[in-house]
Design goal:
The relative contact order is 0.21. It is built from 3 helices and 2 strands, in the order βααβα. It has a two-stranded antiparallel ribbon with strand order 1-2. It is 44% helix and 19% strand. The protein is an alpha+beta fold and 73 residues long. The two termini are 39 Å apart.
């Protein structure tokens, strides 16, 4: 399922993700520019309906990965 929310200003997660890639000075400039440019942004959240967990530590490797590993060796 996908949830779309319109947010006034800049989505906080957007700026948080940008800060991970920039030094402090550039991140501050980037944030200032974003806030000047965007009156609103959309937050898109994806909610999975199912998930699969592979626990490789128990020795259970999915068949397709075992096949790929065998081909590469």
């Amino acid at each position: 399922m996908v949830h779309l929310t319109i947010v006034d200003g800049v989505v906080p997660e957007y700026l948080a993700a940008a800060r991970k890639n920039f030094d402090a000075d550039y991140a501050a400039e980037f944030e200032q520019n974003c806030r000047a440019m965007y009156d609103q942004m959309a937050r898109i959240a994806v909610e999975p309906q199912w998930a699969r967990f592979y626990d490789f530590g128990t020795g259970r490797v999915p068949q397709f990965l075992a096949g790929l590993a065998e081909k590469s060796s």
